[in-house]
Amino acid sequence: MRANQVRKIRRNRIQLLVQQMHKQSNPETAWMQFIRRYSIGNHIHGFYQLFWPTMRQRMRFLWALALLFAFLMLLYMSFLLGHRYEKKPLQTVVATADYPIRKIAFPVVVVCNKNRLNWSRLSEIIQRYNISNDQQPLLENVLSAYDALSFGHFDVFTPLKDQPLQVLNHLNFTKIVTEMAWRCDELLTDCTWLAATRDCCELFRPRRLTFGACLAFNEVEKRANAEFGRDTGLTIRLVLNEVHHAPENMRTKGFVGLLGHQFKV
User: Fold this and answer.
1) What is the model's pLDDT at position 86?
2) What is the DSSP string of 190-219?
3) Which of 25, 86, 107, 203 is 20 to 30 A removed from 64 (C-alpha atoms)?
4) Strand arrangement of the beta sheet that strand 204-209 belongs to
C-alpha cells in the first residue's frame, strides 16, 4: 500500500514538472489566451484571423491592414453622416426643367408657439365652465402641464399622478385648450406677401399639429411666387407676448417654425 502511494506521488510530481516546462516554453500570456478565445467567438468579420494559431505572420499582417482600413472607413462614414445630419441640407428633385416657375407652389410655412396656451383667457374659461374655487388650482396645474408639453417630455404630467383628477371629468379639455390657443392676431404682425402688406389672419389658417394649435400659410391655397430677391416672398414678425404665458411653465420660450409642402396632424 505504501509503495503505491509513493509511486502515485512521484507520477504527480512528474506531470507537474511537465506542465511547468510546457508553460515556460509557451510565451503566450493569460491576456493573449483571453484575446484568442474572444476572437474565435466574436462577430467582427475577419478579426479571428489575427489570432488563428495556424495563420502565417505575413497573412496575419495583411489581415491587420485590412481590418484597420475597414475601421478607418467606418469612422469616416460615421463622421460624414453625422455632419450631414447636423447640417440638414434641403434637397429636392426637379422633374422637368421646362415647367414654369410661376406654377410651382410656394412652400408651406407653419408657426407654433412653444407655450401652447394664452393664459389671459383662463378667467373666461373659469367663468364659462363654472369652475369652483376648490377645482381652480387643479385645473391650473393640468393646463400648465399641457402648456409645457413637447414630444419626448411627457414627464410634465408626473406631478399630477396623485391628484384627484376625477373631479374634472365633466370638462372637455380639448375644447378648453382650443379656446385658450393663440390666435393669429396675438402671434403675428407686419405680414407682407409679394412685397405688399397683407392681413396676417388672411394669410395664415389655424392648424393642429403635435406641437399644439399652430398657424399655417399656403397649405390650402398653394400660392405661387415667380419673383425673386429680397422682400418678394413672405415676411412676418412674431410676437412672443410673454406676459400672457402660464406662470408655472418655466421651460424655454419661443417658437417652432416648419417649412415644407404638407404636414401630418
Assistant:
1) 78
2) EEEETTEEE-HHHHEEEEEETTEEEEEEST
3) 25
4) 204-209, 212-217, 108-113, 255-260
- Does residue 58 carry a pLDDT above 50? yes
Inter-residue long-range contacts of 163-167, CB under 8 Å, 24+ positions, other chains counted: 163/138, 164/138, 165/138, 167/135, 167/138
**pLDDT of 152 strictly over 60:** yes
pLDDT in tens, 64-82: 788 888 889 989 999 988 8
Share the mean pLDDT of the chain: 81
Query: Is the predicted pLDDT of residue 52 greater than 80, yes or no?
Result: no
β-strand pairing of 188-193 with 234-238 = antiparallel
Grid cell locating 171? 370638462
Q: Which residue has the cell 419626448?
A: 152
Asked if 207 and 149 touch (Cβ cutoff 8 Å), the reply is no
- 202-211 CB contacts, 8 Å cutoff, 24+ apart: 203/234, 204/111, 206/181, 207/110, 207/263, 208/265, 209/110, 209/112, 209/258, 209/263, 209/264, 209/265, 210/151, 211/112, 211/114, 211/116, 211/150, 211/256
Write down the pLDDT at residue 126. 94
CA-to-CA distance for 116 and 212, rounded, in angstroms?
6
C-alpha pair distances (Å), 262 with each of 144, 157, 220, 258, 265: 30, 30, 9, 10, 10
